[in-house]
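G., the chain you wanted modeled:
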Amino acid sequence: MALGLPSVLPNPQSAIGELIRDRRPTFSFEFMPPKTAQGERLLWQAIRELESLRPSFVSITYGAGGSTRDTTVAVTERVATETTLLPMAHLTAVNHSVAELRHVIGRLAAAGVRNVLAVRGDPPGDPTGEWIPHPDGVDYAEDLVRLVRDAGDFSVGVAAFPYKHPRSPDIDSDTAYFIRKCRAGADFAITQMFFDADEYLRLRDRVVAAGCDTPIIPGVMPVTKISTIERSEQLSGAPFPPALAARFERVADDPEAVRQLGVEQASEMSQRLLDEGVPGIHFITFNRSTATREIWRNLRVSTPG
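Predicted structure as tokens:
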């Protein structure tokens, strides 16, 4: 059947971990905190346009080094109080003491936000640079998960890496690190962006084989510009699939053809993932709604029986 809207909107206090396990598949969107007045207008335009699709939840990212901490919290608070959407705030440990992290968690709780994506984060300025923990902070994402869970009644998500985290020495180590985060109290995971469905499926299989059943939601981002390819490699630490890169290169001089190919590729990959039984799709929007809405309309969800 064609993708439809949920008959019941999520309760503002809903736990995303429960939504993912109880009502599959979920569909959600990721936004970034704005840096300018124009950026803020674009963000809220995208939020309002995507709100009509009634997603399961939305997430708001956290700038490198905690640079958008206050904006992230403010946007999350506003989504919680001024829209029908269920918000999830990203939280990173970079450059934050435990006291500062507890303060952020407290602000979120005061606004009625009960869902947090806990990620250690990358060093500011150079994501591949040396990780230097705050002297009064936490060292690993699993520590941040425990901190959030100990602070109250939160549903906590963590990041997953289909290719593997850039700092992990190998796939086996990366899998072990991921499972430690789950056993620290994570209810679910959302992957970094990827462009080959098989990478997600291999991740899911090796996690299950290791005895972990934490639901992993694939993070999907359409390529709408050629520059997106390079940016995706910087953000994810994963090489862009060569065969797919060649397809984009053939239309690189035609911006509209690039965009159409990006929507087509993301739609086909998302459909395959749905057919493989993923617990949901998390769209990385970069605060733009048009391509995401096109992909959404292209998807079909099969029903049992």
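The longest strand covers residues 26-31.

Shout if anything looks off.
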